[in-house]
TrEMBL record:
The lineage of its organism: Bacteria, Bacillati, Actinomycetota, Actinomycetes, Kitasatosporales. Keywords: Magnesium, Metal-binding. This is ATP/GTP-binding protein. GO terms for molecular function: catalytic activity; magnesium ion binding. Its cofactor is Mg(2+). Transmembrane segments: none annotated.
Length: 405
C-alpha cells in the first residue's frame, strides 16, 4: 500500500517531486508509525464491515480501527465480536485483493478480548496489525500489553499496541506527572510493540462538561491544550526515548451555522482553480479541521483519529512534505554539515541551524518517505483536489461512529 495510491499514476507524477513509498503490514515499526495518517474509526457492528474496509481502502485510507468500545452499546459487545470475526474471516478469504487491505486495529474493552479474538480469528489474524488499548494508564495498561504479548506469541503474528491516553488521572493537574511517568514505564517496557500513542481529547473535555465548537480547535480549549503539551513533553521527545503521538479526533462533518468567519484564505483556491472545493470545505467544517491539523504538526503530533471518511483527504494532503521543507531538511542533514553551523536556506528566506534543526529534519525526511514530497509549484489545494475528485459531497457517511477518540 502507499499514500495517494488510489489516484492515477500520471496524476501522482504531476503532483510529486518524490512519490510516497510503498509499505506493507510487515514494514519496520518506525515507518508504519509515521505512515498511519488519518486513522478511520468504524464500529465493529457494521453489517457490511468487510465491504466497508475495501471501499475505504479504495478511497485512500491506509489505517482503520474496528471499535468494540465506546462506539457501541455495552449490550452489543458479543454480537460485535462475532460480526468482527465473521467479516475479517470473509475478507481474508477474498483473493486476490484489488488493493492491499489497510493497517487494521481492533479497539478492545478488556485485556481478555485480545487473546480470545486472536484465537477466534485463526488464519485471518494475518489481517490484523494490532489493538487499540483504551483509557491507558500504567495500572490499567499493563494487563493489556501482557495479553498482547501472549497473543503475539501464540499466533506467531507481529501485533502492535496503540494505547489511548484519555483517563481523568492524566487530565487532572495533581496526578498528571505521576500518571505520565507510569505510562512511560509501561510503554517503554513494551517499546517494540507500541506503534503510537493516541490522544482521547473528547474524554478530556467530558471531565469538565466541555465540547469544542467547529470554530475552535483542541488548542483553543486551554485545559486540553495543557495536557497535549505535557504528553508531548514527556512521551514525544526526539532524543530516542519518545513515541509517535497522534492528533485528536475532529467531531464535525457539516455545519449549519457558524459564529466566526471561515478560516481558509481565498487566494490558494483561486490559484488552484478550486473555488468550489473551498466552499465545500467551509460547509463541512473543514476549515477548522485544517487549522487543527496544522496545529497538531506544529506541536509534534503526526497522524489523526478520524470518524468520517471526508476527514481523511485533508489529513493526508497536509501531511505531504513541501518542496521547501524537503530542501531545508536535506541541506541540514548533508554529511559535510555534521559538525554544525548555520546556512541560508536554498529558498533564501530563513536560517537553517544544523544542530538545533537536525531532529526536525530527520522527522521531515521520515514523513517525506511515507507521504511524499510535493513539486515546487504544487500546494495543499492541488493535493486535496486530486484526492477527492468527486468533491466532499461524494465521500459518504458510511463509517461515521460518533466516537470519542
Amino acid at each position: 500500500m502507499r499514500h495517494f495510491g488510489h489516484i492515477a499514476p500520471e496524476v501522482r507524477q504531476r503532483l510529486f517531486h518524490r512519490q510516497p513509498c510503498e509499505f506493507t503490514t510487515d514494514s519496520p515499526a518506525r515507518l508504519l508509525s509515521a505512515a498511519l495518517g488519518a486513522t478511520l474509526y468504524s464500529p465493529a457492528t457494521r453489517p457490511r464491515l468487510a465491504d466497508d474496509i475495501v471501499k475505504q481502502t479504495g478511497r485512500g485510507v491506509v489505517s482503520m480501527v474496528l471499535c468494540l468500545e465506546d462506539s457501541i452499546d455495552d449490550a452489543d459487545v458479543p454480537a460485535a465480536e462475532e460480526n468482527l470475526v465473521r467479516h475479517l474471516t470473509d475478507l481474508a478469504g477474498r483473493a486476490p485483493f484489488d488493493t492491499d487491505p489497510p493497517l487494521l486495529f481492533v479497539r478492545v474493552r478488556a485485556p481478555g478480548q485480545i487473546p480470545d479474538l486472536v484465537r477466534r480469528l485463526g488464519p485471518a489474524v494475518r489481517l490484523l496489525s494490532g489493538f487499540v488499548l483504551p483509557k491507558f494508564t500504567e495500572e490499567r495498561g499493563m494487563p493489556f500489553l501482557e495479553a498482547l504479548a501472549q497473543a503475539e506469541a501464540d499466533s506467531g503474528r507481529r501485533l502492535f499496541a496503540m494505547p489511548v491516553l484519555e483517563s481523568p488521572e492524566l487530565l487532572y493537574r495533581e496526578s498528571r506527572v505521576e500518571t505520565l511517568e507510569g505510562i512511560f514505564r509501561a510503554v517503554d517496557k513494551y517499546r517494540e510493540r507500541v506503534l503510537a500513542l493516541r490522544l482521547g481529547v473528547t474524554d478530556f473535555c467530558s471531565s469538565y462538561g466541555l465540547r469544542r465548537a467547529p470554530d475552535m480547535t483542541a488548542y483553543d480549549v486551554q485545559v486540553v491544550a495543557s495536557v497535549i503539551a505535557d504528553v508531548v513533553n514527556m512521551l514525544g521527545r526526539a532524543d530516542g526515548t519518545g513515541f509517535t503521538v497522534t492528533g485528536p479526533v475532529w467531531e464535525y462533518f457539516r455545519v449549519q451555522e457558524r459564529m466566526f468567519k471561515p478560516q481558509l484564505r481565498q487566494s490558494p483556491f483561486l490559484e488552484g482553480h478550486a473555488v468550489e472545493l473551498r466552499q465545500a470545505l467551509i460547509e463541512h467544517a473543514m476549515d477548522g479541521l485544517l487549522r487543527e491539523i496544522s496545529l497538531d504538526q506544529a506541536n509534534g503530533l503526526l497522524g489523526k483519529t478520524c470518524i468520517h471518511p471526508s476527514h481523511v483527504p485533508p489529513v493526508h494532503a497536509l501531511s505531504v512534505v513541501s518542496h521547501e521543507e524537503f530542501s531545508d531538511a536535506r541541506d541540514i542533514l548533508r554529511p559535510e554539515r555534521c559538525g554544525g553551523g548555520v546556512l541560508r536556506s536554498a529558498y533564501t528566506n530563513k536560517m537553517n541551524e544544523v544542530k538545533p534543526h537536525r531532529a526536525w529534519a530527520e522527522r521531515i525526511l521520515l514523513r517525506a518517505e511515507v507521504f511524499g514530497v510535493a513539486r515546487e509549484d504544487v500546494g495543499f489545494v492541488e493535493l486535496l483536489a486530486a484526492s477527492i475528485p468527486g468533491g466532499l459531497r461524494g465521500t459518504g457517511t458510511g463509517t461515521r461512529t460518533g466516537e470519542a477518540g
